[in-house]
Design a protein that fits this description.
alpha/beta; 6-stranded mixed sheet; 3 helices; 35% strand; binds inosinic acid; binds magnesium ion
Amino acid sequence: MNTKDLKILYTEEQIQAKIKELADEMNKFYNGEEVVAICVLKGAVIFATDLVRNLNMPLKMEFIRLSSYNGGTTTSGKVNAVDISLPDLNDKNVLIIEDIVDTGLTAKFLLDFIHCNFHTKSTKFCSLLDKKITRKTDVEPDYYCFEVDDKFLIGYGLDYDGYYRNLPYIAYMEKV
Ligand code: IMP
Ligand code: MG
């Protein structure tokens, strides 16, 4: 696979502009209150690091690792908690940061996990991308940058078999 077969969906400039918009909304919502941002590895790492640099409240970052993919472009339909060690989130404003909500199984798993284990002050789910059309659960992100079609996307954290996360834009593959 070569980057010449990729079609750019969102440029670096479009992504960065949208992140600033989203961050402004969050800065207003949290109004200076402390936030615990939970980045879902590996896909959300690029988005999370850009987003948090636009947030102005006291903030801690946590990282968890979940996986539902078989390696290529197919989801296994089962979410695995590879590493979900978290600090005490009772009475905290929790902001989950994901790369994409597709079926919503990962988001649901994570939200259920947090609700079962903690009484947070607030729990918000933020995703770079929202693939509403493929949803199999009733989960909706509270914040997202772009709604996307049912295409396999790569770049800006999203991978194909581990590759392409480093592209500064979001693209899709013409043929996989
Ligand atoms: P869900 O559990 O089906 O909502 O899928 C969530 C996870 O699947 C995301 O965190 C991504 O890691 C991965 N995923 C879903 N769609 C894509 C895509 O188009 N490209 C890359 N990864 C994807
Ligand atoms: Mg992911």
